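Problem: given the chain below (255 residues), write out its structure.
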Amino acid sequence: MPPGSSTGGLIHQTLLLAYTLDRAVDLMEVGNFSADLERYRGISAELKQAARRYGFDEERGLFAETRAKEMFSQHTNAFAILSGAVDGEAAARIAEKIHADGTLVQGTLYFQFYVFEAYRQAGRGELILANLDRWQEMLDAGLTTFPEHGVESRSDAHAWAGHPLFHLLASTAGVRPAEAGFETVEIQPALGDLIVAQAEMMHSAGLIRVDYQRADDGSVRAEVTLPNPLSGSLEWGAESYPLRPGEQMLTLPAK
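Solution.
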């Protein structure tokens, strides 16, 4: 149990509640249910402001577990990003620290789902590929399913531990719904050092296919095929490329 769990003032829970309220607002907007929408928005904003005021440590550039700032974790800093308490360059800097600072309390296999989501939201989705060692160790040990905690686990097949299968499609290949019901698609690849990447995702209208090939100059040739009538966009750096049903070829500049 992290410090502050029973006494109050736990920054992690503050950010988690703000994140949850924002997701409730998303559902209310989709369902056209506005009774508590603005109240939830207001509470969420106050929680994030309090987390920044009492939890952010300027010297380390990270959010602490409590205002005493004696403990720091991947968990709390991931939710600082996911909740929107920080964004832009500040979020990208925290994402790098989550990845590189081994003194942080480390998330377990299941919690790495949120860490990976935070990398993507901060624009550092390439860090996902750099953090798959624990899954590679399981494959090297001969496992055919992913266990709960690692090679020595009480559960030999744990759904949460399989989340890289989601992220390779939704974060590395970058294929995600752009709106409720997957009416449109947003493709935002985070290829890292990959030279070649191919993926397929099932959609109610048919298969979405992406094929990325990196050239010697660092540019990426992207072949995207969308089923009719699906449309959307491909996001690459600061550029947005419209996508239409059918096959299309794009050349993405090096970055």
